[in-house]
Specification:
Elements: H1 2-37, E1 40-48, E2 51-59, E3 67-78, E4 81-92, E5 95-105, E6 108-117, E7 123-128, E8 138-140, E9 161-164, E10 169-177, E11 180-184, E12 190-196, E13 199-207, E14 210-216, E15 222-223
Antiparallel strand pairs: 1-2, 1-14, 1-15, 2-3, 3-4, 4-5, 5-6, 6-7, 7-8, 9-10, 10-11, 11-12, 12-13, 13-14
């Protein structure tokens, strides 16, 4: 009789342990799925003359099947000048299908550029806002695989041109030293992008006449 009781107790203990282990596996799987579903957000400090005047956030690459979405948002304030800048680009099978760039200054829309694929040509480009209303629509007849926004997501290895979502045209890019690349912008300015282990660490460029640095802040990176 005691043997039967002991056997039943052992079976119950094993069953209880199995249930606890199964619950642990379910919890762990759910946690992993939750973490995988959250995209990394890299935060950069916008610096002028050694002073942080704002931030720029690079949202994780939202890749699904053959599609990718790149998105950047920034805000800054210097003297009486405050601004917000945002871009979003969508790719299908590595080819750009749409892009939106918007720049607000002191609360007003300064300029907005929209790029979309068209049946008549590969791309049609529209401008709006204070600086864009007088610009005519443009047509671009060449495939676009890399943009200025893409430079925050990957090092431009073996790439000679990138598309500017803001200006609606291609920009030359060249390697100037190991991990450093220069981009010639249509307004005559130049941006320098620096990488380490394939990740963009710093960008040097101009804004409203100010020399600025956009520096990756490792301590502010997060999951969203």
């Amino acid at each position: 009789m005691e043997i039967v009781v002991d056997t039943l107790n052992i079976i119950m203990m094993i069953k209880h342990s199995t249930m606890k282990f199964s619950s642990f596996l379910i919890f762990t799987a759910g946690l992993l799925i939750s973490l995988i579903g959250k995209a990394q957000v890299n935060t950069y400090d916008v610096i002028v003359a050694g002073r942080t005047i704002g931030s720029l956030r690079v949202f994780g690459n939202e890749a699904k099947n053959d599609t990718e979405t790149h998105r950047i948002e920034s805000n800054f304030k210097v003297l009486f000048y405050s601004g917000k800048y945002a871009t979003q680009t969508d790719f299908v099978q590595g080819k750009l299908v749409s892009a939106v760039s918007a720049h607000h200054v002191n609360g007003d829309l300064k300029e907005k550029t929209q790029t979309k694929t068209s049946t008549k040509s590969l791309y049609e480009i529209w401008f709006s806002g204070e600086d864009g209303d007088d610009k005519p629509k443009k047509v671009f007849n060449a495939p676009i695989n890399n943009t200025v926004t893409s430079l925050y997501y990957k090092e431009p290895l073996n790439i000679s041109q990138v598309y500017s979502e803001r200006y609606g045209q291609m920009c030359n890019i060249k390697k100037v030293s190991e991990g450093n690349y220069s981009v010639d912008l249509p307004d005559g300015k130049q941006g320098i992008y620096s990488y380490k282990n394939g990740q963009c660490k710093e960008v040097k460029t101009d804004l409203a006449g100010f020399k600025l640095r956009i520096v990756l802040n490792e301590g502010k990176n997060s999951l969203k």
